[in-house]
Design a protein that fits this description.
Subcellular location: Secreted
Number of domains: 1
Largest sheet: 8 strands, antiparallel
Helix content: under 10%
Number of helices: 2
Distance between the termini: 12 Å
Structural class: mainly beta
Keywords: Phospholipase A2 inhibitor, Secreted
Strand content: 35-45%
Protein name: Phospholipase A2 inhibitor and Ly6/PLAUR domain-containing protein-like
GO molecular function, one term: phospholipase A2 inhibitor activity
Organism: Xenopus tropicalis
Length: 172
């Protein structure tokens, strides 16, 4: 995760993954954050998957409304320029419920790649806690902030904590 002010958080996490998710790259930008997630896989014991290559971070002429909130929705307080493969406006809400926290909700609006939209709706339950993600995407208008996402992915909560299941790209 890279913030527009230059602060960076890069993290590599290893875990088992469904084969259909291997090779998926996810891109998202909101308020002052820009994130890149790469899921590279290998299929033998103790193997090391290939390192990802960083992609273009140039603006692509699209903009989306942007905001963050600790609730189920947020009101856009500006717009953000989309970069590279970010071709959708997204509203993503992540809800964590667990033994140490009754409930943590995080919502953001911004730009995303199609892959974030298609993988953004899921729920996981593990050892007394649950995480649920809901993402809604729309097409942005070229050069305007008119794209909007409707009602509410681990992307939002993980990005908020710089805890993403891959490597996050620095802003170029």
């Amino acid at each position: 995760m890279t913030r527009i002010d230059g602060k960076k958080c890069n993290e590599i996490i290893r875990y088992c993954l469904e084969p259909m998710k291997c090779g998926v790259n996810a891109y998202f930008s909101y308020t002052n954050h820009r994130g890149r997630q790469f899921l590279s896989c290998c299929d033998t014991d103790l193997c090391t998957p290939p390192q990802p290559t960083w992609t273009d971070s140039q603006t692509n002429g699209l903009t989306c409304p942007t905001c963050t909130s600790g609730s189920h929705d947020c009101m856009p307080n500006g717009s953000i320029a989309c970069v590279g493969a970010e071709s959708k406006c997204i509203k993503q809400t992540t809800i964590y419920r667990g033994p140490w926290t009754q409930q943590y909700i995080y919502t953001y609006r911004g730009c995303s790649s199609e892959s974030v939209c298609s993988l953004g709706n899921w729920k996981e339950i593990s050892e007394g806690s649950s995480t649920e993600s809901v993402a809604t995407c729309t097409d942005p208008e070229p050069g305007t902030a008119n794209g909007s996402a409707g009602f509410p992915s681990i992307f939002a909560l993980l990005a908020a904590n710089c805890f993403v299941l891959g490597i996050l790209d620095p802003i170029g």
